[in-house]
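hey can u check if this looks right to u? its 97 residues, i copy pasted from the old doc so theres a chance i mangled smth
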Amino acid sequence: MDVTPQPSETDDALADVSTLSYEQARDELVTVVGRLESGGTTLEESLALWERGEALADRCQSWLDGARDRLAQATRAREEAPEGDDAPPADRGGDEA
C-alpha cells in the first residue's frame, strides 16, 4: 500500500504556508519540531512533518529578511537626511506667533 502524498496534496499544504504571518509560522514550526522530537510517528508522517517544517522555516526566514531590509532602508534614509531633518516640524524654525 502506497501512502506517499500525491503532489497536489503536498503542493496545497506547502502553498498555504505563504499566507501565514511570522508568528503563525513560528508557532506551527514549534509544534512540528515538538512532534518530530517526541517520536511515535511513522516514517511517512515524519517526512511530511519535516517537509512542513522546512516550508515553515523558509516562511519565517522570508519575514525576517523582509524586516531586516525595512530596517536597513530606514537607517539609510535617516543617514541620508540633511542635518536637522530629524526634528519635529514644529521645532524647525517656522513662524512664531
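Residues 9-80 form one domain.
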